[in-house]
Amino acid sequence: MRPKETGNAISGATSKGGNSPLTDHDVYFFKEGTHCKLYGKFGSHLTEVEGVAGARFAVWAPNANTVSVVGDFNDWDTKSHPLKVRDDWSGIWEGFIPGIKEGEIYKYHVESRYNGYKVNKCDPFAFHHETPPKTGSKVWTLDYEWKDREWMETRKKHNSLNAPISIYEAHIGSWRRVPEDGNRPLNYREMAHWLGDYVKDMGFTHVEFLPLTEYPFYGSWGYQVTGYFAPTSRFGAPQDFMYLVDHLHQNNIGVILDWVPSHFPTDEHGLGYFDGTHLFEHADTQKGFHPDWGSYIFNYGRNEVRSFLISSALYWLDKYHIDGIRVDAVASMLYLDYSRKEGEWIPNEFGGRENIEAINFIKKFNEAVYAEFPDAQTFAEESTAWPMVSKPTYVGGLGFGMKWNMGWMHDTLKYFSKDSLYRKFCHNQLTFSIWYAFFENFVLPLSHDEVTHGKGSLLGKMPGDEWQRFANLRLLYGYMFAHPGKKLLFMGCEFGQVREWGHEESLEWHVLDFSFHKGVQLWVKDLNRLYRNEPALYELDFENEGFEWVDFHDWEHSVVSFIRKGRDTKDIILAVCNLTPVLRERYRVGVPAGGWWQEVLNSDGVEYGGSGKGNSGGVNAQDLPSHKRPHSLNVTLPPLGIVVFKRKG
Q: Which residues does residue 486 pair with via DSSP β-bridges, in sequence order?
């Protein structure tokens, strides 16, 4: 039975920004695990009580003996401003403090019922925090005048599964720095214009930011989160990040945020051991501590934790107009034995290795996102063969919109790293991905993970002399854009950065003074242009009907050819890849129709740094059957090149 509504917890309170005090209904749904908008209820909110301005506070700490608000305003006196326990069952502490203004720094002083534990904690629901290494929370409002109405009203078509989605993955702290100002990173507002202009010019449809939720250690890249409701203050205030999103939207660029519900750091001011007990995390380290990352694992079986995490995801979609959530490390959530040896993990109730509580949370998360924001998307970074990751929950799936295709990435990079002399012996590494390409809604990721931790840059992975390395890189990108699946490319890869990515320094923008790098950048720009303009390359990304092999058997010459199709039968694209440095002339390729086949892209163009070998703009199909097709083209295949044809007429 649900509780009877009894009114506001703080008598006479009114709120700014659409927030209101906790009601009994809020508490009920919070405890049930179904409250998805706790950010309007918990934390600190400026308000008035009986005409007196101040702030109300609410925090969950069921095993606390006392909780008080401390800060500069009371000289961090733990006795000055105690909160009151709401009731004897919810575990919520709340109160109103007059005179509090925006920008006030505070923490919760928590004294536990157990072990004499006393600690100052940052607010789990704070909208803003001090700039690290400081760890205080700030009272803050989210007032902002958005100017992206046109984007928000039309983003469904930009985010749909049959739309062109080409994602530029970026780390704000190292994309571009200001050497004349101590080599500092760009702030959010500076980033808005620099990045917006660049991404628009390059033709990417979306930007994906590495985690921007507040985090204490810069070297974690944001993957160790302490503030699930606050953009990191390293680059500005919440309104500054809103400005960044707003500006990208005004330039028709979607924004995806990397989000980390899989684990959180052990820093004392964070969520860990919050009230002297393992509140957000499992008490047993075999379920509650991650051996790889030295961090806590959320207790997904606790209703209040599910409400907290789902509220975080919806908060970014709601208050910051984020268009997509990329969920990090899904595989680590799905399996109880992830990165654990025999005897180091606890089986589920059926004796299996699946984390049933986490699976249930993931499904609820996706259901909540699509119920509230049906024109948004969720993306899973999931590296195993777990079935139906990107299928709806009502058919047994996890409910994500899309999934990163880690298998394609590993096989493709392994293939391209081999000297062309040996590629014919591992031809299947290139072709195998098509066998499972339509089992999920895949994104093809060449992400930050592939250019760090000693892996080198993508250019550094390519074999051969300088010319061959750049030709291989252009061929890799061409193959990626022609292959079924949405696209993701990490910053710097689009111009062939030489060194491995480092988070403490700017990208190597200076290499664009050299023709090979400038050529790669122009090639990626033209790939994005072709991709966005040709429905055959994106409309049926996730359907068998959108792809046909012409020939995947020519391992001896390391050549593959395939067709991409749109919903309109006239939309046909042919891609042919020559994966050796040997020029192949008069190479015959079967096609489904006669007429003129225009060469719309050629990675060997001199403007890209190639040798200029190609087909003089196109080829007329001959009435000569080949590859079980009634017509064929007699084409020139440039060395280490991809040629793309479109049927005209």
A: 443
Alpha-carbon gap, residue 299 to 285, rounded angstroms = 11
Read off the pLDDT of residues 535-589 as tens digits, 9 standing for 90 and up: 999 999 999 999 999 999 999 999 999 999 999 988 999 999 999 999 999 999 9
Cβ pair 578, 584 in contact under 8 A: yes
Q: Does position 10 have pLDDT exceeding 60, yes or no?
A: no
Q: What pTM did the predictor assign?
A: 0.95
Nearest CA among 498, 520, 524, 491 for reference residue 177:
491
Stretch(es) of the chain classified as CATH 2.60.40.10 = 13-138
Q: Report the percent of the chain where pLDDT is more than 90.
A: 95
For 263-286, what is each residue's pLDDT tens digit?
999 999 999 999 999 999 999 999
Tell me the C-alpha distance between 509 and 56, whole Å. 48
* Average pLDDT over the chain, rounded to an integer: 95
Which one of 94, 240, 328, 382 is the catalytic residue? 328
Tokens of residue 485, six digits: 């699946």
User: Rounded to whole angstroms, how far apart are CA atoms 165 and 531?
Assistant: 9
Catalytic residue selected from 381, 411, 440, 604: 381
* pLDDT average, residue stretch 97-121: 96
CA dist., res. 295 & res. 285, Å (int)? 10
Token output for 341: 């040896």
**How does pLDDT run across 237-265, given as a tens digit for each residue?**
999 999 999 999 999 999 999 999 999 99
Q: Which SS3 state, helix, strand or coil, does residue 89 take?
A: coil
pLDDT at 19: 62
In eight-state DSSP terms, residue 500 is P
349 counts as catalytic: no
The domain 13-138: what is its CATH number?
A: 2.60.40.10
Which of 582, 580, 545, 602 lies closest to 427 in space, CA to CA?
A: 580
The whole-angstrom separation of Cα 564 and Cα 636 is 20
Burial class (CB in 10 A: 0-12, 13-18, 19+), 13: middle
Residue ranges of the chain assigned to CATH 2.60.40.1180:
544-648
Chain Cα centroid distance, residue 21: 33
Give the integer Cα–Cα distance in Å for 345 and 360: 19
Q: For this structure, is 623 an active site residue? A: no
Amino acid making up residue 397: G
Q: Does domain 544-648 have CATH number 2.60.40.1180?
A: yes
